[in-house]
Amino acid sequence: MAVSFRAEQSSNKRKTWFLLFGMFIAVVAMVWAAGTLLSFNAALLVPIAVGISLIGVWTSYWKSDSLVLAMTQAKVISHEDAPQLYNLVEEICIASGLPMPKIAIVQDPAPNAFATGRDPNHAVIAFTTGILEKMDREQLQGVAAHEMAHVGNRDTLVMAVAATTAGLLAILADMGARMALFSRRGNDSNPIAIIVSLVIILLAPIAALLLRAAISRKREALADATAVQFTRNPTGLRRALETLAADSTVVHQKSTAVAHVWIESPLDGKSKSMFDTHPPLAARIALLREMEGAPPSAE
Amino acid sequence: MWIWIILAVVVVLLVIFVIATYNKLVRANVAVDEAFAQIEVQLKRRSDLIPNLVSTVKGYAAHEAGTFEKVTEARAIAEHANGVAEVAAADGMLTQALRGLLAVAEAYPDLKASANFLSLQEELSGTENKVAFSRQYYNDAVRMLNTMIVTIPSKFFAGMAKVSAREFYEVPDAADRNVPTVSF
Questions:
Q1: Per-residue pLDDT tens over the stretch B81-115
Q2: What is the CATH number of the domain that holds B93?
Q3: Which of A3, A77, A233, B40 could make a disulfide contact with A81, Cβ separation 3.0–4.6 Å?
Q4: Model confidence, pTM
Q5: Quick check: B133 and A92 CB within 8 A?
Q6: Is residue B166 a part of any domain in this protein?
C-alpha cells in the first residue's frame, strides 16, 4: 500500500512525544531512586542538575548556528557564489513558507549536508563540496528540502531538549551514586527498594542515551516526510539517498557534537544499532519509494 | 455562589474560544492573500527575465520570429492579468510559450553552449520552480481556509470574520497538454 507523507509526519511526531514522555518517566524514576538511597529529599537535587545540564546544552543550542559553522569550518555563501544552490534553497523556502536561511559550504569530498540554528530565523543549512559535485539539481533539491524540514520542524530545539534530559539523568546518577556512599538512610528502607534504586541509577542514563538516539531517528524520518510535503517529489530525495548509500566516503568531522545534524550519519556503523542517530538509509529509501507510489490524491 | 463562579468560568472560556477561532479564520485568510502575493512576485521575476532571454536567443536564431512573438504576447497579457483565474490562465500561456522558446534553443548548439544562455536557463528553471512552489503553497493555504469554512466549529464564525471560500489557482489543463515534447 502506498504511504502518504502526511501519515508519516503525524506518526513520527506522535512517536517523538512518546519518547520524550519516556525520558520524563526516566527522570521521575531517577528522582525516586535517589530519594530511597539518600537521607534527604532527592528532589532538591533536581534544580541543581537541571541547571548544570542546561548551561552546557543551551548555550550550544542558542549559538548553534555560529558554533556548528566554526566546528565544521563551513563558509557562508551568497547568490553569486553558487547560483543554482541558492536558487533551489529559495525554491524550498517558497514551498515551505520558511524564511531564507544562511547557506554554507563545507570543504569536504564526502557528500553530506546539515541544518542547524536555534529557530527558523537563525537557520543555517550547509552542503559539502562533495555533495554539490556528485548530485544533480533534483537530488540537491531533495536534500535542501530535507534540511529545511529540520529547520521547520525545530529539530535543533527537539534535540537540545533530548540532550538536556540525557545530561540531567547522567548528572543525577553521578550525584546520587556519590552521595549514597556517604549518607545513610534509616533502617526503614526495604532492601528490594534499595536494589531497584541502584539498578535505576545505573540504567537510567543508558536508557536516556537510547531514547535520545530513538528521538533523533524519528526526527530524521519526519524530515524525510516533510521534505516530500515541500517538494511533492519523493524521487529527488530518494535518488539523493541512493547516491549517499552508494558512496563510501565519510565526512571528516566525526565529532559526536555535530554527528546527528548530518543528513547521513558519519558515526552510525554498517550494522543497525540502537544507538544510531539515523534510520538505515535502505529503510529511508524504501519508504520514499512507497511514497512515490502514492496516488496524486494524497497530495 | 459556586454556580456563579462556574458560570463565569464557562463564559470566559467560551469568549476565549470564539476569539481564538475568529483569529484563526482571519489568519488563514491573510495567509491566502500572502500566498497569492508570493505567486505574483515570482511571476514578475519570470517576466523580468524574458526580454534578456529573448534577445539572447534572437542573437543565434533570428528567424524564429513566431516563437518570440508568442512569448512577448503572452508576457504582455500576463502583465495585465487580474484575479486568480485570469492570472492562472496567463501564467499557463506564458509557461507554454517559454517552453516553446527553450525547445527552439535546443536546435542551436552554439546558443546552448553560451555562458549567458546557461545562466539564464538556470535562472528561468529556478523561477519556474518557484512559481510552481508558490502555486502549491497558495493552494495549500486555500485548502486550509476552505476546509475551516465548511467544518464545525469554525464554520459558524466565517460570516462574523467576513471570510469566505477562496478560489484555487489552477493552471488551465489544455495549455499543459499542448506542451511541445522536448527531448534532451
A1: 888 888 888 888 888 888 888 888 888 888 878 88
A2: 1.20.1440.20
A3: A77
A4: 0.82
A5: yes
A6: yes
A97 interfacial to chain B (CB closer than 8 Å): yes
Q: Which residues of chain B have pLDDT under 70?
A: 172-184
Mention every residue, 6+ apart, whose C-beta is less than 8 A from residue A223. Answer: A146, A147, A149, A150, A153, A155
Q: Where are the domains of chain A?
A: 5-298
Stretches in chain A below the pLDDT threshold 50: 1, 295-299
Q: Which of A8, A133, A138, A147 is catalytic?
A: A147
Q: Which grid cell sits at B176?
A: 499543459
CA atoms of B98 and B113, how far apart (whole Å): 19
Taking phi over 0 as left and psi of -120 to 50 as alpha, with beta for the rest, A232 belongs to left
**Interface residue A148 vs chain B (CB under 8 A):** no
With CB atoms and an 8 Å threshold, state whether B119 touches A83.
yes
| Residue B115, domain extent | 20-177
Instruction: Count CB neighbours of B149 within 10 A.
Output: 20
> What CA–CA distance (Å, rounded) separates B160 from B158?
5
If one counts every other C-beta atom within 10 angstroms of the C-beta of residue B136, the result is: 19
Q: Is A115 in CB contact (< 8 Å) with chain B?
A: no
Residue of A nearest to B125 (CA): A87
Residue A297's pLDDT is 40
Pick from B126, B44, B133: nearest CA to B90: B44
**Distance between CA B90 and CA B44 in Å, rounded?**
12
Contact A84 B119 (CB under 8 A): no
Model pLDDT, residue A258: 57
Count of structural domains within chain B: 1
Gap from B1 CA to chain A (nearest CA, Å):
39
Q: Is residue B153, in this structure, part of any structural domain at all?
A: yes
User: Could you tell me if residue B32 is inside a domain?
Assistant: yes
Q: What is the helix (H) or strand (E) element at residue A113, kind and residue range?
A: strand A113-116
- Give the separation between CA A169 and CA A166, rounded to whole angstroms: 5
Is B64 inside a domain boundary? yes
Residue B128, chain A, CB below 8 Å: the answer is no
Q: Which amino acid is at A153?
A: N
Give chain A positions within 8 Å (CB) of B133.
Answer: 91-92, 94-95, 230-231
Q: ipTM surpassing 0.85, yes or no?
A: no
Residue A183 has a pLDDT of: 61
Q: What share of chain A is helix, strand, coil (3-state, %, to 5)?
A: 70, 5, 25
Over its C-alpha atoms, chain B yields an Rg (Å, rounded) of 24
